[in-house]
Amino acid sequence: MDRRVREPIYDIAHLGHVELLTPAFDESLWFFTEVLGMEEVARRGGSAYLRAFGDYALYTLKLTAADRAGLGHIAWRATSPAALERRAASLEESGLGEGWVEGDLGHGPAYRFADPDGHRMEIYYKTEKYRPPEDLRPALKNQPQKFPARGVGVRRLDHVNLKALDIDANSGFLRDRLGFRLTEEVRLDDGRQGAAWMNVTQKSYDIAYGGIDAAGIGGRLHHVAYALDSREYVLRAADIFLEEGIFIEAGPAKHAVQQTFFLYVYEPGGNRVEMISDIKLLLDPDHETVTWTQAEREKGQAWRTIMPESFFTYATPLPEEAPDG
Amino acid sequence: MDRRVREPIYDIAHLGHVELLTPAFDESLWFFTEVLGMEEVARRGGSAYLRAFGDYALYTLKLTAADRAGLGHIAWRATSPAALERRAASLEESGLGEGWVEGDLGHGPAYRFADPDGHRMEIYYKTEKYRPPEDLRPALKNQPQKFPARGVGVRRLDHVNLKALDIDANSGFLRDRLGFRLTEEVRLDDGRQGAAWMNVTQKSYDIAYGGIDAAGIGGRLHHVAYALDSREYVLRAADIFLEEGIFIEAGPAKHAVQQTFFLYVYEPGGNRVEMISDIKLLLDPDHETVTWTQAEREKGQAWRTIMPESFFTYATPLPEEAPDG
Amino acid sequence: MDRRVREPIYDIAHLGHVELLTPAFDESLWFFTEVLGMEEVARRGGSAYLRAFGDYALYTLKLTAADRAGLGHIAWRATSPAALERRAASLEESGLGEGWVEGDLGHGPAYRFADPDGHRMEIYYKTEKYRPPEDLRPALKNQPQKFPARGVGVRRLDHVNLKALDIDANSGFLRDRLGFRLTEEVRLDDGRQGAAWMNVTQKSYDIAYGGIDAAGIGGRLHHVAYALDSREYVLRAADIFLEEGIFIEAGPAKHAVQQTFFLYVYEPGGNRVEMISDIKLLLDPDHETVTWTQAEREKGQAWRTIMPESFFTYATPLPEEAPDG
Amino acid sequence: MDRRVREPIYDIAHLGHVELLTPAFDESLWFFTEVLGMEEVARRGGSAYLRAFGDYALYTLKLTAADRAGLGHIAWRATSPAALERRAASLEESGLGEGWVEGDLGHGPAYRFADPDGHRMEIYYKTEKYRPPEDLRPALKNQPQKFPARGVGVRRLDHVNLKALDIDANSGFLRDRLGFRLTEEVRLDDGRQGAAWMNVTQKSYDIAYGGIDAAGIGGRLHHVAYALDSREYVLRAADIFLEEGIFIEAGPAKHAVQQTFFLYVYEPGGNRVEMISDIKLLLDPDHETVTWTQAEREKGQAWRTIMPESFFTYATPLPEEAPDG
């Protein structure tokens, strides 16, 4: 038997929640609740806590009023208390650990850290599962919440996509310290990693460093993605965004990388949000990373969809808004 | 931190392949290749090896000529060589282990065993991944094979569903010995488990004991399921089965349990085959089993779809065909 | 040139609106507005006037409080003022004409009549087209109204389906007097017409006499149907009905006759309502009627879907509620 | 009653067939049969006659070997023999009539003419309806042919889209002489019609003059369109075109004008072919033309899809290939 095969690490279960910062809190809240069809489960300080109907946890989005759009933090759930301790110890060792915090609404103690690019993250295990009130009780008890036939009706948080100055360094950090697996990547002609898609679940990705942050700002968000059941629902989302005056940047169309079906819009606070479907399962425990050359990447999307320039340059916070931008 | 939480076992990666026995080999082969759109990758002895276009392994179905319809064996892939050894040791200890075999086309050494009901199974790790010939090379290299726009066009093997005399015993065996997680179950009024759905992946199930084998035969198959991308493709499959004269037993409709979208047909050899979509992800590492009471179960499918009696009684081999039936 | 070909009559443009009677007005109104996603455009006396977002006319459903569920009347729009006069003259001659009425909200003078079975109908030409208020203005001006991302979101009125004691007589009346074309029919072994589907548009049917009224009551409604864009939207409607506790009688599934995709529910007032998609176009000006024998009809729906007995017997008003029932 | 309302003309039933010229006959034939899934019903001289499974007539596409890509002719079916005579008389009077021809495979005598731009057209009434051979007999007899689960599987011919030097003149000709109705148009700032969509059926268009022929060649084709049942099937077509190496020019996406869902490819002979779904019904007999200003038109497609320059300039024959180009 081949002894070189390393035992995989299964310490991170999945993406838990994302905190988005918005300079237009009320409008952003309208977007997520009325247009996307999410539920607000709590309000604390300047933050609203929001959930999609299929999310099992209390919430997956923390929307926080701020001066600028951008990413607050990204939270990962560990697979067990011991897994959490193992990862905290490894992060501590990495020098990028920031230490434990008490927790927040809906989850227990969390270990905070940042990736090399400065995106703030945390890991936690203990989780409050959602218990619906009477009016949101589902007809079938194997579903966390009644399906809200309102707006787009997103099902669940899917992934985050970040900009980074040095993608090799950041993807390597997540792999080494947290056990992420690199499922697809772009390798530029100069040898640098141009983009990296990684998973901890059996979805083909849970996080991506989608492109190099040419502006050199650090800690920037390309987008956060919510999943829909099929391509038709992504098309229907576009119909709804059109009616509601939401800025559609690109799609619906099919990515060549990962083959997911995408639709990108800007929520009123300025953050890019993706509607996604057809994320593939990667059940193979020794899946080999798919590497796209720069030339292959430049062929664009699967169906030759023309992407606007902003798709490659726009990220939050914007350069003019960034603290030192 | 809560010390009572047991570390999950991640030793089984996924369902690897299923061997079906058919008394009508040529007609069954036509069904899987021309109607379902699968590819035959090899023929050995009385068996054809078949794959769906999204399967990463060489094949997921072994179709074997036999006197009677039924299940040959079910194969599970381990997550690593060490995981395979751990599971073999545990099975050995269980008294239901049968020992190692050399392997078969497409995979390395396998440890053979049977569940308490007599369904023959094996675990292996080493796997031959599919390398398409020129005419089946996909346009996008992150896909194992060109999409065959022929027939139904199933994407990948999804799960197996078995009959068993004692479901508690069988589901308990898979949980204890292989680390399967019980995601949903039916608990009868008399206290027995009436059905059990279990997973090793993050799909909400990979195997089910779908009902008690009232005929008391043992080792019987309810169905094997192949996955499609969305509900519309399951409807389209029904259109195709209608045109091709394939017996449609039930569906398309939506299960209450697991909420999957189903369509059941009999392949020409007599085995029931399911077209499935909308299998949900269970990312929660401490997901609590959903237990349906007998009364809840008797409410039927999600949309009150009337199921034919055969759905509850028909399994292969048929009683009159079973060795001692 | 073949002189036997009769010039078709194009005097009736389409089904204009349907009046439904409900003994549960508030609940029925909730069903049509909140569950189906229709808009109430006016309230007059005991009636609410409702529209689907794709209807070009002011409304297509008049919902009227009454002691019993059932059909109020069915209104057809003529293709021109002259066409209206021609049809009124023909109806007058038939002995089933009732004379002119002033019109109602949204349309001009109407000629009233009843089919031989006693279903009350009218024809009108002059029509008020819908002009949306600011908050319902669509993003694209070639659409009558903003798409309401609320509930099912039905697009437009499609057809009505009636019970009748003598189907030959009723379908013949519509053909002879109004120029309806018989597109499909069931011919019973005893020579009687068992069901008849007819169109005036190029949809494959606009009205059907769906079955013989064995209860012998007369003037009964089997269902009224609203159209959705595709099968997936009909499935989604079933998901919503499940969550909202609406009684699902049959479907979603595919009819053999006409091949439409159907879903039948009872609105809270007791009338059956169909969600329909995939109604085919019949562009052939000399389309030959498709005749199904009794034996063919008894084969059931396209995919062998089992229909509940109520589908064949339930109609409004119910026998116990009918005036002389 | 309003006497100013003109009685509509219903003399043209629908688009009957289109003849395409191809300099790559074998490759074009492969495209239509293997990639689109059409059937070849006959071969005569240098022409193949092809049908989609839902077409009621013997064929809807005549594919003819030629030096250059482009349009052969467009054939319209009349609603009756008398209607054919009426239209022939009117065309005769117009000065653009060319006289009667004997007919071709599948239809009777046809009156030939050209629109002012030189697109060759004909009208006929007598039609051979398709009778499937044994292996193409459908399971349901209300369908002309068995659904071929091969390739895209287009259902029926939908429309043609032409370039013209003077769109007002051409759309006016079809309206005045043949009774076409102008459903949507673009009106340029200089007062000229920039594009015109017209119907004879209750589909929202059957022919369009999609843009001004800036090259000034005359008689050019923008595209011919085949219909699919829903948007998902158009997406699936894109998946198949990608695998088969067919050039995808634009889409899948949603038009603002007419709101149809589109996908444009070039068949191997160079002609643009559209896959279309969601063509709306226009049941209103006095539908008012929707006029888009130049500024409105320049906003582009419904979801801001970026169209390649070729979409506005490419038409067959190409300038360099045109007889006098």
From TrEMBL, chains A, B, C, D:
Enzyme Commission (EC) number: 1.13.11.2
Keyword Ribonucleoprotein carried by entry: no
Annotated PROSITE patterns: VOC
Residue ranges of domain VOC in the record: 14-126, 156-278
SUPFAM superfamilies per UniProt: Glyoxalase/Bleomycin resistance protein/Dihydroxybiphenyl dioxygenase
Pfam families: Glyoxalase
Entries under InterPro entries matching the protein: Catechol_2-3_dOase, Glyas_Bleomycin-R_OHBP_Dase, Glyas_Fos-R_dOase_dom, GlyoxalaseI/FosfomycinResist, VOC_core
CDD domains from the UniProt entry: BphC-JF8_N_like
An example molecular function term from Gene Ontology annotations: ferrous iron binding
Keywords of this entry: Dioxygenase, Oxidoreductase, Repeat
PANTHER family xrefs: GLYOXALASE FAMILY PROTEIN, METAPYROCATECHASE
Name recorded for this polypeptide: Catechol 2,3-dioxygenase
Species of provenance: Rubrobacter taiwanensis
High-level lineage: Bacteria, Bacillati, Actinomycetota, Rubrobacteria, Rubrobacterales
